[in-house]
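Z., the sequence and structure:
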Amino acid sequence: MVKTSKRYQGVVALVDRDHAYEPAAAISLAKKTATAKFDETVELHIRTGADPRQADQLIREVALLPNGLGKPVRVLVFTQGDAARAAREAGADYVGDDDLIQQIEGGWVEFDTSIATPDMMGRIGRLGRVLGRRGLMPNPRTGTVVQAQDIPRAVADARKGRVEIRMDRTSIIHAPIGKASFSEQALLENLTAVVELIVRARPATVKGQFIRSAYLTAAMGPGIPMDLSSLLDLRVE
C-alpha cells in the first residue's frame, strides 16, 4: 500500500472524485490543493479517442498561452546576417549559426526553445539526436522554422509561453497552463487557449467522441475531474 503524506491526504479530501467540476471551479480548487513549498505548475490532462498507432491521428500542435507559464523562457535562434541582427533586437538570448551548432554538439543545451530560418535547417539537421528527444528541435509544424521577416514575432511568441501539445502512447495529452500563484482569471485564459487548440486539432479520421475525459491538477496535488460540456464550451474572446 502506497503511503501518502498528511499534506497530500489533506488536499485529497478537498476533491469530490464523483463530481465533475466546471473550469472556473476546477481552477479554484487546484489552487487550494497547491500546498507544496514551491510554486506548483497547474496541469491539464486530457484523454482522447485518437489512436496513437495511426500516423494520421497523431496530434502535435503548439499553444501560445496569453499569460505565459510563469518562468523565464530562454530563446535561441539559428540564423545569420540581417536575420541575426533582427533576432538580437527582438530579444533572443542566443543567436548564431555554426558557433551554436558546435556548442550544442559539445553538450550545451541551456535554452528552452529554439527557432531557425529555413536556410539553417540543412546545417542543424545533425542536431536532431540531441535536440529532438528534448523537444528543442525547430520544426515547421510547431512554428519554430520561420522566414527572416517573421523572427521578431516568433521570438515574442516564444516569450509568451509556447506549450507543445502532444499525445502520448496512451492517447493522453498533458499540458501545463501556468503556476498556482497565477490569478484564477489568468489560468482560465491559458486553459481556454489550450482547450480550443486541442478541439481544432481533432484528426479527421477519429471516430466517435474525441475528448473522453479531462482532469486538472496542481503538480503535487490530486486530479480534479472536469465537466466536459463546459470545458468544450470555452472560447478565446
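The domain at 75-160 is CATH 3.40.50.790 (Rossmann fold). The first helix runs from residue 6 to 12.

Let me know what you think.
H.
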